[in-house]
């Protein structure tokens, strides 16, 4: 079971309350919670792949931390980044490895 997400409300609750509620209640509260369709582990792998491919490294860092909590191993993350390097780009892989090395060394 995924942990209740409050990042939307914590960071944008007063400034953008509808977006914050959609983030916390719909994206994380409903979509991520559908573990009968995809496990949190698999969702983390998919999300990290999409964020790396787009070069969205601040979000990738946050989701790599979530991925680690969801049981994505260092070996799996290294394989994910290596595989995507050929599809998303070598420089993106270097950046992603920098994040993964920090997150998976803790």
Q: Tell me, what's the shape?
A: globular
In percent terms, what proportion of residues is strand? under 5%
Q: What is the arithmetic mean of pLDDT? A: 94
- Tell me the CATH architecture of the largest domain: Up-down Bundle
Structural class: mainly alpha
The termini sit apart by: 24 Å
Please give the radius of gyration in angstroms.
14 Å
Pfam family, one: CMD
GO molecular function, one term: peroxiredoxin activity
Protein name: 4-carboxymuconolactone decarboxylase
InterPro entries: 4CMD/NDH-1_regulator, AhpD-like, CMD-like
Describe this structure in words.
By secondary structure, the chain is mainly alpha-helical. It has helices at residues 7-12, 17-31, 40-54, 57-69, 74-88, 90-103. The chain folds into two domains: 1-37, no CATH class; 39-106, Up-down Bundle (AhpD-like), CATH 1.20.1290.10. The radius of gyration is 14 Å and the shape is globular. It starts with 6 loop residues before the first helix and ends with a helix. 22% of the residues are buried.
Give the SSE map.
Layout: H1 7-12, H2 17-31, H3 40-54, H4 57-69, H5 74-88, H6 90-103
Record keyword descriptors for this entry.
106 residues, mainly alpha, AhpD-like, 6 helices, globular
Short structural description:
The chain has helices spanning 7-12, 17-31, 40-54, 57-69, 74-88, 90-103. The protein is mainly α. Helix 3 (40-54) packs antiparallel against helix 4.
């Amino acid at each position: 079971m995924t942990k209740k997400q409050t990042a939307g409300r914590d960071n944008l609750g007063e400034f953008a309350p509808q977006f914050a509620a959609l983030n916390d209640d719909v994206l994380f509260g409903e979509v991520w919670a559908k573990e009968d369709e995809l496990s949190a582990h698999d969702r983390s792998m998919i999300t990290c792949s999409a964020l790396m491919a787009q070069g969205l490294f601040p979000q990738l860092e946050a989701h790599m931390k979530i991925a680690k909590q969801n049981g994505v191993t260092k070996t799996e993350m290294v394989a994910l980044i290596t595989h995507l390097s050929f599809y998303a780009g070598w420089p993106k892989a270097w950046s992603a490895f920098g994040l993964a090395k920090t997150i998976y060394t803790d």
